[in-house]
Amino acid sequence: MFLISSVRRNYLNLRRMSIQAALIDLSGTLHVEDDPTPNAVQALVKLRDSGVAVKFVTNTTKESKATLHDRLCKMGFEVDRSEIYSSLSAAVAYVESGKLNPYYLLSEDARKDFPPEDTERYLNSVVVGLAPKEFNYEKMNKAFNVLLEKKDNQLVAVHQGKYYKRGDGLALGPGCFVKGLEFATGRSAKVIGKPNAYFFEGALAGRDPSSCVMIGDDATDDIEGAMSVGMQGILVKTGKYLPGVVPSPPPTALVENFSEAVDWIIQKNTK
C-alpha cells in the first residue's frame, strides 16, 4: 500500500470539491448592522475548515475598507483585510485606470479609499455612492453641472442599489439619485458594483466561475449577477430578502441564513 503525503491528499480533496470558493455578501447576509446573522461567526470558521476559499464582496459604499474590516472583527468574524472586495475597491481601480478627476458624492469615510482631487485639473466625472448626507440640492446640482460641462465627462455609480437593510427597516439606496442624474443630463452611468460582470470578474480574480458560489440576500444584485457570469447562487432569507422577488434564473439554493448556506456547501462537497 502506498502512503499519500498530506500535501497530495489535500490536493486530491480540492480536486474533488465541486465548490472551491465562496463569495460572501456582508450586510444582510453575514450581519445586519452590528449583529451577526444566526450562527454566522461559527459558520464562517466551519466553511474555512472545510477547505473552501472565501472572499467577502459587498456593495457597501458608506465605509472605507479599513472601517469595514474593523467592524467585522469587532463582531467576532475572522477576516483578513485582503479578503474584502467591495464596489468601492472596484470603483477606485476604475477611477485610477481611467485617470479620472471626479466630483465625489460619497461618505467622508468612503472617500478615504479614493485618490485625492487634483486641483490642477478640471473635474471630468462624478462618482456616486451611498452618501445620505451628500444628497442635497446644492451637491446634486454641482454634480449635474460637472456632467454637463463636457460631453465626455462620466457619471460613475459605485452601485445603484434600490434599497438596503437597516435596523429600523429598509432604506433608500443610491440608485434613485443615480437615475435622477441620468434623467437630468441624458447620460448613462457606468455602474461598477453588483450585479455587473465587471464587479464579479474582479472579485473572482481568474478563478473558474463554475467552481465558485455566491451567498447573498439580494435576488438581483447577488444571485442574478453571480449566475450571469457562470457561478452558482445561494439566496438567504435574511437582510433585504423579499419572498416576492424571485431571481431569474432561480437560485441554486434558497436557505434560511448564512449558516445554512455553509451546511449546503459542505454537504455538496462531500457527496
Automatic annotation (TrEMBL):
Keywords: Cytoplasm, Hydrolase, Magnesium, Metal-binding, Nucleus. One of its GO terms (molecular function) is inorganic diphosphate phosphatase activity. It holds the Pfam family Hydrolase_6. Its EC number is 3.6.1.1. One of its GO terms (cellular component) is nucleus. Gene3D superfamilies: HAD superfamily/HAD-like. It comes from the Eukaryota. PANTHER family: 4-NITROPHENYLPHOSPHATASE-RELATED, HALOACID DEHALOGENASE-LIKE HYDROLASE DOMAIN-CONTAINING PROTEIN 2. Belongs to the HAD-like hydrolase superfamily. This is Haloacid dehalogenase-like hydrolase domain-containing protein 2. It comes from Drosophila ananassae.
